[in-house]
Design a protein that fits this description.
CATH class of the largest domain: Alpha Beta
Helix content: 40-55%
Largest sheet: 5 strands, parallel
Number of helices: 10
Number of strands: 7
Strand order of the largest sheet: 5-4-1-6-7
Number of domains: 2
Amino acid sequence: MIFLSKFVLFFIKPLVWVFVLFVIAFFSKQKERQKKLIISGLIVLFVFSNSAIVSKVFNWYEGKYVSYQQYDVGIVLGGFSHYNLKRKTIAFTHNGDRLFQAINLYKTGVIKKILISGGSIEKIAIHKIEANSVARYLKQIGIPDSAILVEDKSRNTIENAANTFKMMTKIMPKAKILVITSAFHLPRAKLIFSKYFGNQVAYYPTDFTGNDANSFGDYIIPNAGALGNWELLFKEWLGLVVDRFRI
């Protein structure tokens, strides 16, 4: 199963498609077929390295900000940090906005408590349990213990939803909840959390990938970052399809 998932994730990369087309063209003995394959490869490369195109797709797919009331708990989904062994402290990834937005929501009174949901795939590596590292960071910057909740067993979004549901049912069954996660991850989070919480939770998107506006260069100049964004989107769509059958 692990090999299959690695195989699938490898072949959802647009750059792999381009490489395969060029390799087939290189070994093709028919000049006309070779020409078509090279042109196809160049078209695929242009389309998937175009920042404006992928940005518009993200704008269509990602959630949007809406007006928010006050919530008892903001659930921050993990996957935005790791433990830096050199500095022996927490380090944030490009999804770190999940936490920073949660802190802002707490400081402005939108949420009363921050619930960090995120464990570690490596169960024996205690220092790699994300929720615990994040909780320590929150305390270091002045967030009181009374405002921090920790769920440190989850390894994916399904476990985030299942474990936080059990936790909230036990300690705060009538709490108003806001789920905080990256905008690209919001559709999958909604799918999963609605199975456990129903319509009793609201959602707050962070770190939008789509641009508010694109320059002229975005339409004509290839960008390696666009290839990575397509890979991120394809991976998320694949996860969305798989999770529909898993929950």
